[in-house]
Structure prediction request, 152 residues.
Amino acid sequence: MARYAQVQLKIWTDDKFPFLGDDLQLVFFHLLTTPAQTPLGLICVSAESLAAEKRWNADRYKKRLREGEDAGLWAYDARHYVVYFRNYWKHNKPGNPDILKGWLKCVDDLPCSPLVYQCLEDLRCYCVIWGENYLQAYEQVAAELTPAPHLY
Prediction:
């Protein structure tokens, strides 16, 4: 779904990332660049499918998913097969409110995972920071989503 995601060059001077194991760093970049990635920082596919895409054994991949969650890199909902990058919006601001509207349209195709709602709540908070035009765009599209996320 997503065609690109931004990777900050300062990731290598971060207080956490450089000290993660090689497998966990690789899974981070795999999740960020998998074709299953959405423009919202949500990956909606099973751990087994991700492992197969990477040509890894499923147990190895699942172990890294848990480690990444424990390290605060992402949240993982094994029931609904959703991974959410917790800091996605910090590094992936939409170029303008119209782009945001387009990105939000994919929500109707996502599972009813609590992580989808967490993503939308986080996004709304960032829209407040980004300015009134972003917030209006968010609220316009969010009101039409099924089911509509809670709007404050």
User: Anything to note?
Assistant: The first helix runs from residue 22 to 33.
